[in-house]
Request: fold
Amino acid sequence: MTAQEYVAAVLACYVALPDTPDRPRKPDRALAYTFFADHIDLATVKDALVLATARRYFRTTKGPPLELIHSLAYFVPAIRELTRTALPPGYIDHVKSRLASGFPKLGVPPLPMPW
Reply:
């Protein structure tokens, strides 16, 4: 996979998520190139996007609504976490399933993942 293909894939996943911009900005593109240069596997980046989205979506606090995500940098802590610690097999699939089905009893609607 070329750097351009990698960056395009990362940015396509990023902008497809809820509460993210419709188009990536130049700093988002630069950060995606940094991920490529740092040899961060595309699957790891995608898994981190899913994990951070789930944590945001299913947060337990009943505080005010969260602001929109303005930058790919929002996901850097989750990416770092997954580069240091492997998730159990099947965990991301479980998280995607939970996002897709929501929690109707808690009033949390489904949130289909874009991939």
